[in-house]
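CORE FACILITY INTAKE
Project code: CF-77B
Contact: R.S. (postdoc)
Sample description: multi-component assembly, two entities in total
Requested service: structural model of the whole complex
Turnaround: standard
Below are the sequence entries exactly as provided by the requester. Do not edit them.
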Amino acid sequence: MRKNRSSFTWRKITESKLFFPLLALFIILLLDFILIPGFFKLQIRDGNLYGSLIDILRNGSTVAILAIGMTLVIATGGIDLSVVAVMAIAASVAALLMNPYVLGKELSPQILKLIRDPNFTWQPLWVVLLTTLLVATACGFWNGLLVAYARIQPMVATLILMIAGRGIAQLITNGVRIQIFYEPYAFIGQGWVVLPFCLYLVAFIYALTWLFTRRTAIGMFIESVGINPRSSFFSGINERNIKLMVYTFCGLCAGVAGLVASANIKTSDANNIGWSLELDAILAVVIGGTSMSGGRFSILASIIGAMVMQAVTTSMYAIGVPAFALTAIKGVVVILVILLYSEQARSFFQNVASDRKIKP
Amino acid sequence: MSEADGYLLSMVGISKAFPGVQALDKVDFNLKRGEIHCLMGENGAGKSTLIKVLTGVDRPDSGKIFLEGKEVHVRSPQHAQALGISTVYQEINLCMNLSVAGNILLGREPHNRAGGIDLAKMNAEASELLRRLLGVDIEVTQPLHTFTVAIQQMVAIARALHIASAKILILDEPTSSLDAVETQQLFMVMRKLREQGVGIIFITHFIGQVYEVSDRISVLRNGRLVGTFDSASLSRLELISKMIGRSLDELDEMSKVKLESRKFIESEPILEAKGLTRLNAIHDFDIEMHTGEVVGLAGLLGSGRTETAGLLFGSERPDSGAVVVNGEVVQDYTPLGSIKRGVALCPEDRKAAGIVDDLTVRENIVLAIQANNGWFKYLTPQEQYAIADRYIELLNIVTPSPDQPVRNLSGGNQQKVILARWLATNPKILILDEPTRGIDVGTKAEIQKLVLSLAEEGKACLFISSELEEVLRVSHRIAVLRERQKVAEFSGDVDEQVIMQAIAGSEA
């Protein structure tokens, strides 16, 4: 009886959506522990925590935020390729609202002195944040309209904004890279309250999204639409509005990610900001166990997936892999992680359970 | 091996266990040359396991297989094909965008000198094969999707026969998506193959077809062979009682229940359709539905049954005409509007339009009621479990728990889950499109009884089925469709022959 129960729990654990991303993360961290001395060392400076682990969490937070929105989109059977383009637009809007004086003017020493003041901003912070997020949400809404109402395939529909987005971001700033000096804004990306501030942001968005999907019927509807749109239609679920909502929400998440990323590098670098992060976000969702064809999703698993991606990056840097070779290595790691998800690997882990049962 | 002599195929003492189930228990099965042999049994009786053992998908735990008197060990489906055992499954595994000839000869195309495919030769070969073996004459250069399901099925058979000179052909529910004419076509082909000495194992849920085409019948129940009988000497009632292993009083009881329940029918119609017309769907359709009444809708596949169901439900907008529910003309043509009006539809295609297979039984049951509540009026898990538990008990849904993904349930139980989803919305009008398709006999009877008792409790039901017998059994009134028009309406105690004639439209 007791043995049965223990195997039952083990089975439950291996069937949980969190098991494989956590296992992948554990394996990577284990390798770090063996290969890199001092990887797990944490320091406390001014009451704040620092260390490689904290770096992983901090640097992974942008992808984690993107992955939250992306999870819902993928769960409906769609995809959003435009998230990084939306990030760039958000960064440009935010930078412009704080510092519009750099556009098309010869800068007098007076103005230069003014805009380099860390307390100077054109618009108050709340206006900056609210406007930026509204613009990003509108971008998501546009994607949602194309997918849900114009019935364009998600990959094509979001490709439009993916290509146009960085151009739009450039247009907003007139092709100028606007530097950000305003300190309260930079705090979003660089601030520390024991832990990096952006981690609280991730936790906040996660909690909000969880409540939004799991304490309403929305989560079930998203999954239902992703698994079988026709059955969902006949059951009275408005599949279009669900899709419109998830793309809009994904735009909002991309906006927040844009704030974090631009605050971190203190510029609106429309050309380079968040380069190829959309693919990291998609991979994070895949590692989190949400099927690309839609259906069951777990936001927490996606966030862990994002941390897996970042753990790989950080470890590679720590080992001394040069930046230009990083993406190649990342590819290999992703393949290995995906292999963990295969039927064979799954049955292996379940067999571990039955082996245990046989042993006295 | 005297026992194996004389038979084309002889399976002796086949046993196969899966964790927790004895799927086959010392089953003997034999097949003669030039015979159509029906394999009957309820879902879970062991039919598919027996076929899987024969085709090399599963290995038997014990028992022997003799092919033409020689013992064989079937290692894989490929090996089975090489031995001359071919299978055509219910779902057609062909490439819809390839031509008929391309499908038949896929992977074995004749080549010309340049190494390319010799199209002319391929088409000639395919065309010849279809005519010679099956007596079918079609344009083999056309893509497969331009043909009816029946023809597609025959192409699948031709392909199966071409792969090896098949001695044994297994047809696993080939008629479930065919209408009466198509079924006849298929039977013709089967008879032709029988003349050529092929042994055919035929699996179907349609009892009528069993008698029409088969020479012998083997019945399985709970993994055991009940017996093998000559079709001519086994009555339908005997066959059914052997399959379900209990007496048929229950089934007979139904007509009594039906007669008695007639008194509950209200005189005022709750739903009226007037001149309902939609292009390529239905023309000028009128019907009245009353609370407490079961209306049967009979007709062949393609006669407009399913389209009519969609129009009455309100998920489709008619080109002209109107549906009046409770005295109000329907304006809102969305499923949500239907739920709010109190109309429910169990769609014909259970897998594609009914269940959401990865969601749990509980989630599937609360889906429609939650859709009616909207995004934010959330049923708490406790409320969801309460609803699910109530209907699992009420409809006798067999599931280990409400948290089981609905994909793991049998077809009949999936159908009950969909029924539960709609009953949970407390509808006044229930439209059931083929609610018993592909479901075993026992569950079928259960669902039929359920429909009658629902009517008695004050619902108006529309019962659509391609099985006339079933329509007759549950309906107080029967409307007949032919070629997308309503051609007749009868009371429920009409003679089967009369309806048949209306369906067929023959004056003879």
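Facility notes:
- Confidence is low (pLDDT under 50) at residues 1-6 of chain A.
- Chain A has 16 helices and six strands.
Invoice: internal transfer
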